[in-house]
Amino acid sequence: MPIDSVDHVRAGLAEHDYLADEGLATAVFLALRLHRPLLLEGEAGVGKTELANVLAAWTGGELVRLQCYEGIDIAQAVYEWDYARQLLHVRTLEAAHRLGEDVEDELYSERFLVRRPLLRAISDAGDGQRPPVLLIDEVDRADDEFEAFLLEILADYAVTVPELGTFRATTPPIVVITSNRTRDVHDALKRRCLYHWVEHPDFEREVAIVRLRAPDASERLARHVAAAAAAIRQLGLYKPPGVAETIDWAEALAVLGRDELDEASFSATLGTVVKYREDQERVRREGIGVLAAEALRGA
Amino acid sequence: MAPEESSGTETPQLETVAVAFVRSLRSAGLDVPLGSTLVFVNALAEVDATSRAQLYWAGRATLVRRSEDVPVYDREFAHFWDGLATPDRAQVDRVKLEVAVEDPEADADQPPVPDTEEARPRQTLVVRASPVEVLRHKDFAQCSDEELHETRRLMDDLRLAGALRRSRRLQPVRHQRSPGTRPDVRATVRRSVRAGGEAVVPSRRGPSERPRNLVLLLDVSGSMDPYARELVRFAHAAVATRRRRRIEAFALGTRLTRLTRALSSRDPDEAMAAAAQAALDWSGGTRLGEALRTFNDLWGVRGLARGAVVVILSDGWDRGDPDELAEQMARLRRVARRVVWVNPLKASDGYAPLARGMAAALPFVDDFVEGHSLAALEELAAVVGNA
């Protein structure tokens, strides 16, 4: 599918219920056209991971996800030999007295290779036409040594397995890397990537997103919820609500049959937007009535 | 599309303009590698370069790699493409930090005096062999240049031992029955191959330990002047010698500045100069609460301070709102493993934490230690190591 403009990207993502602003759409467009990984940073819950899901749905490529965590290594990210099966295989051959010269080649063949996400993304995912979407999620959780390794793979989309040879991607995957910025991602990795800082959406966009993602919520309710969420974000909470929380909130209120945000329903559903006890206290101290009234006015 | 048609005449010109724009970004302090410039030029060929928004975003996606750099980019973009003036840059005079420290005797007793760069009479220094022991306990504010020089040399030898925390990373363990271990098939196979294919002794892997993050927050306001430079020096000793341990340093002034990058240089003087460049509000006022809020929002609560040892080096003189400070300290306290407050004034006779900021922050502090002399900093290193 040839992608010819920023608007095309925006429309494509919107088809799959993802409303990107001009900045994000431009970054995605450039990532697709220049075949560069896209590094997304931003608050939790602004839709970084979701972008990869939607990109996969839109382009039709398979989504390959690698969730990073501390201590992740090649065995979990790229490939591993299936030792148990190898051992079993040797024993079987032994029992059948067929243990020959070529047993090692047999043991280190693709049959015993366990492909982890990075190898899958460059070797067998996708059908040549539609490149897979490789999501490397929360890269900041992995150790920085892992980044150096990632860099190598992203430089030429190839992985070398010493026993087998080099796997090279026929169509390079679309790579989306997300980071919550618990630490700085290494500069060398950033240089490989296009960078975009994902902001909380502005009010109108958030209303539109809520309408799309929580279709049961009325326009009126969506506006109230978005306005209240914006007000809550101003309080300097421990964890300010992201779009994901706003959507949950609107859904919860819709399930309760509410058409607008009043003090009682605000209070009853506070747990869907604000998820720390201290934050909830903070919101209550600020006065739920006040916030609700503010939301009504803001909407 | 428009750029396609006009590419014959337009493109070379665009390249030149793009390079000029990158140069202006660089001169504004943005670190743009050559590779990014090339990507930027390629990106311009893809987007509709006649649209201001697309031009803006193409540049932001390719030339900016840190969200902190966005304001600089915005300013330079406006300046370069729209021909607007750059008021911010004109306003902020870069405060040059002199690495050589003046004789600070004059204001040793009255902390909150902003430094007026008047030429104070310099004491003629008698060169003598400083007994290290005396020097170690001497208040930085009372040290002569010569003594400070010696102190710094000693400080460079200071190492911060790391408190450990349990890591998710597994490592081979010797004791087979220790709790929390799991079988290590890879090592077992390797071992059994050595033994001729017999899987005799299973190997196991178990949890390991790794050093906790250490965060240094340095108050660089006017009242801290006699100490700030030595404390930054201390931070440099810590940052430059970190190995596997993650150590981050920030300057707290009227705003928050991250110093880690600046302090990463091995050469102490170079690092100090870079730090002074980075923190524009050197020797200004303090709004501890606000700066701490920025730290919490952008770095701390997000993960940097989680399970970390956080060291705040400040005298607690604060022009901001004490409630705000207390609130931010509480937030910090909730994520950090340990909060250490280093106050150089604590060593003064009859010191009571009367400064409003200090009083507000104290309930959230695990260790309240002195920081006026090398010996005090050594004590600090010990506290940090045992956290």
Q: Could you walk me through the main structural features you see in this protein, from its secondary elements to its overall organization?
A:
The complex is a heterodimer of chains A (299) and B (387). Chain A is an alpha/beta fold and 299 residues long. Chain A has two domains: 140 residues, Rossmann fold; 92 residues. Helices cover 51% and strands 13% of the residues of chain A. The longest helix of chain A has 15 residues. The two termini of chain A are 40 Å apart. Chain B is of the alpha/beta class and 387 residues long. Chain B folds into three domains: 90 residues; 181 residues, Rossmann fold (3-Layer(aba) Sandwich); 44 residues, no CATH class. In chain B, 45% of the residues lie in helices and 13% in strands. Chain B is built from 16 helices and nine strands. In chain B, the strands form two sheets. Chain B has a six-stranded mixed β-sheet. Chain B has a three-stranded antiparallel β-sheet with strand order 1-3-2. In chain B, strand 5 and strand 6 form a beta hairpin. In chain B, helix 3 runs antiparallel to helix 4. The N terminus of chain B is likely disordered. At the A-B interface, helix 2, helix 5, helix 9 and strand 9 of A face helix 3, helix 4, strand 1, helix 9 and helix 13 of B.
CA gyration radius of chain B, whole angstroms: 26 Å
Q: If you consult CATH, what is the topology of the largest domain in chain B? A: Rossmann fold
Helix content of chain B: 40-55%
- Can you tell me the CATH superfamily of the largest domain in chain B? von Willebrand factor, type A domain
